[in-house]
Structures are given as C-alpha cells and as structure tokens.
Queue: 2 jobs
Job 1
Amino acid sequence: YAGLQRGARFAVYDIAADRTSRENLALVGEVLDSIREEQFILHYQPKLNLANGKIEGVEALVRWQHPVRGMVPPGDFIPQVESTDLILPLSRWVIEAAIRQQAEWHASGLKLTMAVNLSVTNLYDESLLKDVRALLKAYGLRAESLEFEVTESAIMADPVRALEALRAVRDLGIHLSIDDFGTGYSSLSYLHEIPADIVKIDRSFVTRMNDNEKVGRIVESTIALSHYLNMAVVAEGVSNRRHLDTVAAYGCDAAQGFLIARPMEASAIEDWLKKADWPRPEDTASIGP
Ligand code: C2E
Ligand code: MG
Ligand code: MG
Ligand code: MG
C-alpha cells in the first residue's frame, strides 16, 4: 500500500514536470517572433572589484517578457533554445543589445566592462566574431571592454574544438571567462590550455565554503591556482557579508551576488551606481566609489 502511494506521488510529480518541460519546449518555437517583437530584455548584475571597492563592470542576463507567461528566467528557455540553431539569432540579439547599452554608458561617462553569456554553439558560428568586431567598431568600443562567459561544462564537452574557438575570441582582444567553474568535470590537463582571463567560481562553492572547511580550502586553492595561471577570479553568488569577507581574505579579485546587487534593468543600474552604497570589503570601505 505504501509502495502504491509512493508510486502515485511519483506519477503526479512526473506529469507536472513533463508539462513544464513541454511548455518550455513550446517557447522555443516563439523565439524568432519574440526577437522581432522585442520581448527579450537584458538585466545587468554588477561586479565588485575587491581590491578597490569599485564596480568595474556588469554581466548581461537575458529575460523573456512573455505576453502570456510573464517574465521568464533564462533557466526556463536557454537550455531548450541552446539545443537548436535558434541560439544563434538569440545570442546575436543579446550581444548587440549589450554592446549598445555599454556604448550608451561609456558616452555618459560610465566606463563599465560588459560580460555576455554565450553558448558553446555560438563559438562555432564563424560569422559571429566578424559581426562582433564590426559592432565594436560601429559603437566605438574597445574589444577589451567586452567579456564572453562560457561555462566550463560547455568547453569540456569538446575541449579540442572549443579551445580553438576560444583562441579566436582571445585573438580579437575580447576577454574570456570560464563560467560556473568547478561544476564542469574539468580536467587539470586542460585548465592551463584554456585561454581564459577570468575564472568564475560557481555559486555552489561560495554558498558552502563557510560551513565546510574542505570546500573553503577548495575555493582558496582555486583562487591561488588561477592566479598562478595568470587568470583573475570572480566569486559568484556572494549573498551575505561573510561570503564577501571570506573570498576577499582568500585573495579573490571580484565578486558578484545578491549581497552586492541583484540583476537590474539598465536605468536601475544607473540610479544604483549613483547611490554608491553597496557593501565593500573592510579595507576598501574608506576608498569610496
Ligand atoms: P550565470 O551566467 O552563472 O549567471 C548567474 C546567475 O545566478 C543569474 O541567474 C543570477 O541572477 C544568479 N545569481 C547571481 N547572484 C546570485 C546570488 O547571490 N544568489 C542566487 N541564488 N543567485 C544569484 P539568471 O539570470 O537566472 O541566469 C541563469 C543562467 O542563464 C546564467 O547563469 C547563464 O548561464 C544563463 N544565461 C543568462 N543570460 C544568458 C544569455 O544571454 N545567453 C546565454 N547563452 N545564457 C544566459
Ligand atoms: Mg555568467
Ligand atoms: Mg555562472
Ligand atoms: Mg550559472
């Protein structure tokens, strides 16, 4: 009887999960129309420089303002879109919108770096880099102010091919970040070959590092290892004061997370930067914005 009950519960759960994935899959067919109808929007999450307490840049994070489903987070459609070629037009939209916003900020004196998340499929789209170069030129931006974030697992899915594509990005001068580092079954034999400028330590490590000594040591030594390999380190998911103090003590270069700020619309970023009241590591608190 208990087994039956358990079975029944699983059945209900499966139906719900299946409906969600079917609904999310149905979204994929709407991507092209939705780009045309301007239903996508970028929010921006600030990145705090831990050495000087300043906001050095932002990461663009896409959202879908769906007429029926409301604000849909990227986790509900990016994985599905990524499994199709529609990730090409969507990423192009994201890149251009981010570059346009960055140019607007630069023109008004806000010199922020801009990070854009890319799928591994985008790396194999040879015309993308050409178009990005043209966009940077058209908007008068230096390649070095742009950053592409690619997840470690995407790189490791086909490291030989990915590394070649990453080198082409690097050759252009665009900075590269390994996103969600630590979750991608990375092999130490590839780490030194990835031509990245930045390692972003996944939120799951930051969340656990103060409760689990070994996780703390992993974060600390990942920071040291990245530095030895000439990469800067960003801690993701810094959501309380202790997270911030710990990663700062470990020598981390920058931090992102809800403690500092949630992702915001462009206009909200501008207001927030003016207030300059984000938390800073102790020894930079006196430096000011
Ligand atoms: P990501 O690139 O690792 O971005 C960080 C995610 O963690 C964001 O979720 C952000 O809102 C969230 N986050 C930041 N700080 C905290 C924190 O302190 N606590 C918690 N709980 N969460 C935090 P979001 O915006 O839902 O994006 C999820 C993922 O979707 C991104 O992970 C990225 O992999 C993907 N994504 C977002 N925008 C794009 C895009 O334009 N293109 C592609 N290909 N992927 C995107
Ligand atoms: Mg990212
Ligand atoms: Mg990440
Ligand atoms: Mg992530």
Note: The beta strands are 40-49, 55-66, 70-72, 113-117, 146-151, 175-181, 198-201, 232-235, 254-255.
Job 2
Amino acid sequence: AKEGGRRRPLRRFVPAMRERLQRRREMELDLRAALEEEQIELFYQPFIDAGQRRVIGFEALLRWRHPGQGTIAPSVFIPLAEETGLIEQLGIWALEKACHQATQWPTDLAISVNLSAVQFQSATLVEDVRRALAASGLPASRLQIEVTESLFIDESDKVLSILTEFRSMGLTISMDDFGTGYSSLGYLSRFPFDKIKIDQSFVRDMRRPENIAIVRSVLGLSKALEMQVIAEGIETEEQMRILYEEGCREMQGYYFSRPRPAADIPLMLVDISNRWNHDFAVTEALRR
Ligand code: C2E
Ligand code: MG
Ligand code: MG
Ligand code: MG
C-alpha cells in the first residue's frame, strides 16, 4: 500500500478509534455489573436558604467507584448509560435509593433527584416515581426532580403530560443548568416548572458585568413567572454576597459543602449551622 503523507492521519486515527470503541464496550459491561456489585453510590450536596439561614434540602448525585479505575464521574458514565439504555435502570435505582435514604434523615428536608431526558421516553416513568414514593413512604411534597433543557428537543406533548402528572402528585420540578441548553424561553411558561436553577457557569465569574446581568434577568424572570430560583456552583463568599444583594436566597455550591456520602448528612447539617455566624455572616449583615 502507498504510504502517502495524506494517509498518515488516518493510520493514526483508525487504531485510536478502535481502542476508544473497545474501552467504551468494556465500560458498558462494567456499568451493567456495577449496579449489582454495589459500586454505584449516591452522594448528597445541601442547598440552603440564605434568608432563613438553614439547609432546605439535598441533591442526590451519582458516584461510581470502579474497582480498577477509581471513581468515575457522572459526566462520563451518565452519557454512556443514556446511549446504552442503562439509564432507565440506573435512574430508577437512584430514585428509589434517594427516596429511601431521605426517610432516614433527622429532619423533613427536600430531596432533589436528577432525571435524564432519556428517562422521559420510558412508558413507566410516572409509575416508577409513584412506586419509589410508596415503597419508601416519602411524602411527594419532599421530592424534587431536576431536568435539563435537553428535555425539550422533541416529544414535547409527552413531556408536558408527564410533568403535569408530577405536578399534580405534588412534586417540585426544577429546571437545571438554566441558560446553557437549547432554550426557548417559551417552555418556561408552557411547562409546569416550580424552580429555576441558575447554572454555575454564570456564577463562576460574578465579577463579569455580563454574568451579573444574566443572573439579574433570571431573578427577574423567576419573580415575574412566580417561580423559585436557586443559584448553583457557589464557591466563594464574594459570590454568595453578590447573589444575596441581587435578591437570590436559595444557593448551592462547594462554599457550603461538597457532595458527600449519605452517612455524612448529620455532619453536614451541624457544620453548616455552625458556620452561619462567621463564614456566612455576610448575609446577616446584609439583612440589616
Ligand atoms: P448537576 O445536576 O448540574 O449537578 C451539579 C454538579 O456540579 C455536580 O457534579 C456537583 O458535584 C457540581 N458542583 C456542585 N457545587 C459545585 C461548585 O461549587 N463548584 C463546582 N465546580 N462544581 C460544583 P457531579 O456530581 O459530577 O454531576 C454532574 C452531572 O451529572 C449533574 O449535574 C447531573 O447532570 C448528572 N447527574 C448526577 N447524578 C445524576 C443522576 O442521578 N441522574 C442523572 N440523570 N444525572 C445525574
Ligand atoms: Mg442537578
Ligand atoms: Mg446543574
Ligand atoms: Mg449539569
């Protein structure tokens, strides 16, 4: 075969691609086994009300402790689970586990669970949620679900009927990563959202006037639409203070706590409540 210069990139590309496919197939098999072998776990990250100075709930976030590769991030294995259909099983597992664990907490806090857009293609999603609530005994009013804008790419009638059903059951429905997807603002009024989560990309650099402007307009929008609003990805006191000054009260981020295992929930509650008078004192000062 000719070894022309133009073919060289292809010669490198094909084996690399084969290797990638191979790795992907291996990870898919590993993921199937992971659920049975209890390598999958839920971590919890608190979200707070800075006005009332208290934790109001925890978001459940999947972790995969892979025996050979250490902890694999959800940004890696969730897309894989979505492509292979495993997300349905994984999603139900997470929902049932989160509902069950929330019933063991010391107080009646909210539990927020992420649902993939792919799960909305399942004919049994509403039933699965009902069953998770019934089996755990968790009141529906404590369960929040988080969906992203990718939900609105297609099949909006089906999505609307599922969300409407969730709403009538008493769940809180949050729009996660708001402002990063295929947004048409119209869906905010057409679909029954209770809460908007301002994406962390807007919070990260709050010194940029553009990001302040975006945050301010989302806060205005949520007020006009009578929706709750929460900012995610808060890492510094400065970000907290600016958000508070802009009128945001619900917050979540590493500044309050990183996601931690279920067993650490009592610790996280104590830790945050101890920090109101120093680390988070800024919001108390702003109240006066
Ligand atoms: P998300 O739902 O937007 O979750 C927030 C992500 O930001 C989490 O990453 C969290 O650990 C991280 N985070 C929280 N506070 C901060 C902060 O102050 N700074 C920074 N840099 N990051 C922060 P994680 O746990 O890696 O999850 C990534 C994404 O994976 C989630 O984004 C969610 O879309 C998805 N995911 C996680 N668990 C589930 C699940 O059970 N089901 C589904 N469908 N998706 C899930
Ligand atoms: Mg989320
Ligand atoms: Mg998010
Ligand atoms: Mg996200």
Note: Residues 59, 114, 146, 176 surround magnesium ion (ligand 2) (CB under 6 Å).
